[in-house]
Each structure stands twice: as structure tokens, then as C-alpha cells.
Amino acid sequence: MIGLMGKSQVSVDAKGRVLLPAKYRKLLPDDLVVTKSADEQLASLAIYPPDGFEQWMNSVLEAKGGYSANSRQMADLIEEFYANAEQVTVDTAGRVLLPAALREYAAIDKEIVITGARDHLMLRSPDTWQAQQDRPKPSIFDDAASSVTAP
After folding, report:
1. pTM above the 0.90 mark?
2. What pLDDT was estimated at residue 11?
3. Cα dihedral sign, 44-56-75-87
4. Interstrand relation of 111-116 and 121-124 (parallel, antiparallel or unpaired)
5. What is the CATH number of the domain that holds 81?
6. Cα-flanking dihedrals φ and ψ of residue 89, to 5°?
7. Is residue 2 part of a domain?
């Protein structure tokens, strides 16, 4: 699958439904998982295909040293992500219902910015999107430039 890319700003209807742009719908299955993103600084949501959500969770666990049933920290981490994840279905009109608790967490009201993030979508309020754009980011060339030595 080609990576999910691009940015769209769309409306959220009174019931909390979001029309997924066609460029994303054609690449995603009808059954999806919406959850809090891993970005602790900017409250936002992520939408994954179910297998993508599981792959992401496995990568998070591996980054923490692997799964251990005896680790309270690991159990808390798993519970945090799974308790805040919801299975959603794209309806026949191409809409996804964002659960109220997740909309509240991400301060999503009448508008939402959807961005492709390779294997998932990120959903943010316009204010959170702007804050994400405004925060300092390292140059993509920093690592490459620092590894080059002068003759």
C-alpha cells in the first residue's frame, strides 16, 4: 500500500461524524481503530487499520523493552492505549463517527485537520494543527550534515 499522505480540513457534523476524504478512503478498509495519539504534548487522534494498530502497539512495546506480563508499567501502558481505542466503521457515505470522549480529549469541535502519516491518519483540531506546525522541529538534514566530515 502506498503511504497515506496529504492534508485536508473537513467539517465535523452535529453527531461527531467526519467525512473521510476519498484519497484516504480508497486506501483504508471500512473497519478502523481510532485512538489517542502518542504525542503527549499535543492532544490529537490517530486512525489505523486494525492490523496497523496492532503493529503500532507491538512497536511501542518493543521500544519499551518488550512485553512482560509481570511489569505494572507495561500493563498500564497497554491499558491506556486499548482503553482509549475504539473500533469504528466507515459508513456508506464515507463518514466515521468519532467517539465523544476522544473528540473531547482532542478538542475537536466543528472542524478537523486530517493528515496522512504513512500508515495511519492524524486528526487534530485546527488550533492543535497550527500548534504542531509552529513547534520547533529539527532539520531533516541535521543528522546527515553532522555525519559528514571535512577533508
Report:
1. no
2. 98
3. positive
4. antiparallel
5. 3.40.1550.20
6. -125, 135
7. no
